[in-house]
Amino acid sequence: MRIVQNISAALAAHGLIQRGGLVFGDGDVAPDGPAGRPARSVLLVGQAGAAPWPHFQRWREAQPASPDNPLDSWSREVIGAVALVFGARAVSPSDKPYLPFQQWAMRAEGLRPSPLGILMHPEYGLWHAYRGALLFEVELQFGEVRKQSHLCDLCVGKPCLKSCPVDAYSEAGFAYEQCLGHVRGPSGGACRTQGCRDRNACHYGTAYRYPDDVQAFHMKSYAGL
Question: By three-state DSSP, how is residue 150 classified?
């Protein structure tokens, strides 16, 4: 557990947190670790609320030119530097071929998806994210995964399925083109500046809700604006 604690301290300097981990079993197809052998452990790295935002903004302002995907670039740089210190391989959710980050997260933290597809966290609600992971070729010791109450099962009204102006989310899934067309269009100003209406309608984890400028940044990236 000592290495996990030390990694947590290193991540905290950037507003990031370790989001649990797991040891790969015999039935898992494990990605390669730092030396090219199959990894034995994965430690997930992410955020709760907008804690990394000031760190990211300072980094962004110091860049001579803004990269195409600045938050992804910042995450890779920070998590990559931590990986070098602790002898791990850093990977990102945007790496191709895509790695099963959501499945890892569900196993590591005992979470389940919300109707919006975002994993529902018992404390953070929908206001959290996974920014990367550290792969090790040794078995790390993680605490036992506690069984979590799935807050969506306790929510009767499901406001997250009733607040979108174009009903992009429903029991049938996510109408991507419908959502994108609205966000980019003349009626999508509130979504562009204040974030997804459905996500904001959820009443869990509101203490961690991203500020409007953070939500606007993510919506701009999503819509390619």
Answer: coil
What's the confidence (pLDDT) of residue 1? 61
Question: Which residues, at least 6 apart from 121, have a Cβ–Cβ distance to it below 8 Å?
Answer: 48, 109, 111, 128, 205
Residues 6+ apart with CB under 8 A from 120: 111, 112, 113, 114, 126, 150, 151, 152, 204
Taking only the tens place, the pLDDT of each residue in 169-194 is 987 889 999 999 999 999 999 999 99
pLDDT, tens digit (0-9, with 9 covering 90-100), for 124-157: 999 999 999 999 999 998 878 888 889 999 999 9
d(CA 62, CA 119): 33
- Alpha helix locations (H) across the chain? 2-12, 53-62, 70-86, 101-109, 151-154, 176-184, 189-194, 197-201, 212-223
Q: Mean pLDDT of all residues in the chain?
A: 94
